[in-house]
Amino acid sequence: MAYAYLFKYIIIGDTGVGKSCLLLQFTDKRFQPVHDLTIGVEFGARMITIDGKQIKLQIWDTAGQESFRSITRSYYRGAAGALLVYDITRRDTFNHLTTWLEDARQHSNSNMVIMLIGNKSDLESRREVKKEEGEAFAREHGLIFMETSAKTASNVEEAFINTAKEIYEKIQEGVFDINNEANGIKIGPQHPTTNSTLTGSQGGQQAGGGCC
Amino acid sequence: MSDSEATAAEGPEVQDASPAEMPDSSSPDNATDVAPTRKARRRPEVAPAAEAEERPKAEEQPPKASSESTVAQGGWGYWGSWGKSILSTATATVATVGQGLTQAIEKAETSLGIPSPTELSAQVEEEEKQQGEAGSETDKAAADGSTAVGGAMGMLSSLTSVVQSTGKTVITGGLDALEFIGKKTMDVIAEGDPGFKKTKGLMIRNSTLSQVLREAKEREELQTAETESSDSEKKVVAHYGMLFDEFQGLSHLEALEILSRESESKVKSVLTTLSGDELVQLREELEDIKDSFSLVEFDDEEVDERKDGDGNEFERELTKALEGLNVSTTADKLSKACKSVNGQISDMTQPGKEEEESEEVEKKTLSVEEVHAAAIRSLAELTARSIELFHKLAEMILFSNGRTEAGVLSQLTVVLCKEISLLSKKFTSCLTTAGSNEKGDVLNPLITGVFLEASNSASYIQDAFQLLMPILEISHIQRRAESTEQ
């Protein structure tokens, strides 16, 4: 299960918007209606393929509760992507987006790709936040936007994968310095060649180039 | 003299010990990479004993020193220098081949030509003669020849035979030696890792345990890929690092390291704002906290094997240690994992006995590889869960800011390490039973592997424990501030 890149993601947003459910749907393809409150941070990982390359997503699912904020902020650093989640049936979770965004921008690297997610799109009848509002917010702040449902799995794959695509493009454009792990990107183990000694020294040269 | 030179210089020493062979240590790229990362691996400040003795030694040694002169110069016994040279050579091997932990050790076993226990004890006697005026250290080393050196031998070449003939005492000795070597192996891997360079300067600590582990895991992945392509018939191969990551052990460790680091820098910045008596007093209070982290003895001598057949005892102790700490969910996960491991072990031991009694047909119960895989998997899972527990504890301490005694945490660490040690012993005894018909060269590396990973597991748990120290410190400072405000 060698991968070409590892991307670190964080999932942030108010408590109860469905962050852990999105993660569970993405990693395990299942939905759990009742979820324990997340304490601090929990983890998930999954392999995806972009442009024929194996990419491992290492996802940090943070606690949404205000009281955990000072701890969870510590985890923002070194993330390549962030899923900023609100609940389309709760206006207040949308109103808090600005605070979340400021927090994220302040505590992570400036190139971090942020995907705005309006979750619970299956609950159309209880909708309080129009899709257009989400789109407008995303446009204004330079985010990608999607509405998802962790329950029906609608757009969940897409949300995680599109974020990764954006990161991948940034790598191709040279925006991300992939040798700097503070960017939340890690190059996978070198692909095996016929001679493992050779592999070792290649790794050495490469890292040497990106050093200091 | 740079460390890389020291490493190279010690090559001949190994040949002295056993002229059989030398691994290819001529990798210029890696050699240059080794030097700056020598001290990269962060070790808790409280356990510098081994390193303090080790490092200056490496630097002192002149090139081409014979083992005798090294010993005379260092003046602290055969075992020390011998262990050092093996490890240095292991460095070269790891650096060159870039293999994972287990592979490195197996490589060491198969290719380093470690002298047999008999050869070695003969050499020890010789050493003794050669340095008649040597200090008490040396005398002790010679006197301990059969235990200290034999224990190390067990790890590197022929543990099983020793185990079979002399039983548990040696296993314990072997485990200590393993712990030492296991830790060194992690250093060695850190040394051989060129990736450490690039994070240099970005972090307060140049490298962290989770990085080291991640690298080790990646090497394993690489190794697996190679094995799969070249040798498809290879059976069950257990990779500790990959499994540890699968159970999210690495992520929890990384997160714990982040919290620890941030707390540490917060503590530092608080200290800079204080002066006079206030500063003195706080320093004293922090010293107390530090002390309770450094005085812990993780002694596994007391482990009684008959106790705790089903993991209930462990659960009881765990619950006791965690009373009032609010991490029951995580602790439950750990208890469950532990119970299931104990269940596996009893499944392995029970049916095996029956079959032996009924008929001596080679009816397979579990192959040694399968037992080994189960052992490695269990160790990886329990360790990952233990690290998760420490991470959750760190979060709860920071979150609730309640008073948490370091003593409780050290007690927890002891309980966890004891359990790891106990399980590794159970698993190796399963291995010995399952492999009673196997040749030593099949069984030995497997047993060695289990002990090695058990000792690594214990190291990771103890390191995670140490990471809690700055967290208790900042929590103490915050509590203090609150009480003065009110």
Percentage of residues in DSSP E strands of chain B: under 5%
| Low-confidence residue ranges of chain B | 1-118, 133-175, 183-206, 229-236, 352-363
Number of strand segments of chain B = 0
Shape of chain A: globular
> Could you name the CATH topology of chain A?
Rossmann fold
- What is the overall pLDDT average of chain B? 65
Q: Unreliable stretches of chain A, pLDDT < 50, 5 or more residues?
A: 191-212
What this model shows, in words?
The complex is a heterodimer of chains A (212) and B (486). Chain A has 212 residues and is an alpha/beta fold. Chain A has 7 helices and 7 strands, in the order E-H-E-E-H-E-H-H-E-H-E-H-E-H. Chain A has one domain: P-loop containing nucleotide triphosphate hydrolases (Rossmann fold, 3-Layer(aba) Sandwich). In chain A, strands 1, 2, 3, 4, 5, 6 and 7 form a 7-stranded mixed beta sheet that branches. The longest helix of chain A has 18 residues, at 156-173. The two termini of chain A are 30 Å apart. Residues 191-212 of chain A have low confidence and may be disordered. Chain B is mainly α and 486 residues long. Chain B has 22 helices and no strands. In chain B, 76% of the residues lie in helices and 0% in strands. The termini of chain B are far apart. Chain B has a domain at 250-349 and 366-483. Residues 1-118, 133-175, 183-206, 229-236 and 352-363 of chain B have low confidence and may be disordered. The A-B interface holds A 1-2, 36, 39-41, 43, 45, 58, 60, 67-68, 70-71, 74-75, 77, 179-182, 188-192, 196-197, 199-201, 203-208, 210-212 and B 24, 27-30, 32-33, 95-99, 192, 194-195, 197-202, 218-219, 221-222, 225-226, 229, 242, 248, 251-252, 255, 258-259, 262, 329, 391-392, 395-396, 398-399.
